[in-house]
């Protein structure tokens, strides 16, 4: 489980596209997903997570996504390891945006952040530092 951290413009998307190309060139499966359509368009073969995995999205103000990616991949692979033993490379910039929690307090927003997940302790963080 990896997380690529870096400010906007430091090459996260470029790095992800290189990783995708390398994995695919070795005849392995690499699935590129993003939380937004704009971000998905920037990834080679990228799609939104809800589109790729057919996650139903109800467009109501109080909707929440009641699916846990970790648990889903453990169920699919029948492997009781984080994310079913599948290598995950995530990325982002916590300096740019936090999760949206409608009518949430600062505490609710922090708790919704991936850094508050019990899985965060096993994530290997890589920092991009040169623009």
Automatic annotation (TrEMBL):
GO terms for biological process: DNA recombination; DNA repair; telomere maintenance. GO terms for molecular function: 5'-3' DNA helicase activity; ATP binding; ATP hydrolysis activity. The keyword Translocase does not apply. It catalyses: ATP + H2O = ADP + phosphate + H(+). Its cofactor is Mg(2+). Residues 2-67, 69-131 form the DNA helicase Pif1-like DEAD-box helicase domain. It comes from the Eukaryota. InterPro entries: DNA_helicase_pif1-like_DEAD, P-loop_NTPase. Its EC number is 5.6.2.3. It holds the Pfam family PIF1. Keywords: ATP-binding, DNA damage, DNA recombination, DNA repair, Helicase, Hydrolase, Nucleotide-binding. Belongs to the helicase family. This is ATP-dependent DNA helicase. It comes from Rhizophagus irregularis (strain DAOM 181602 / DAOM 197198 / MUCL 43194) (Arbuscular mycorrhizal fungus).
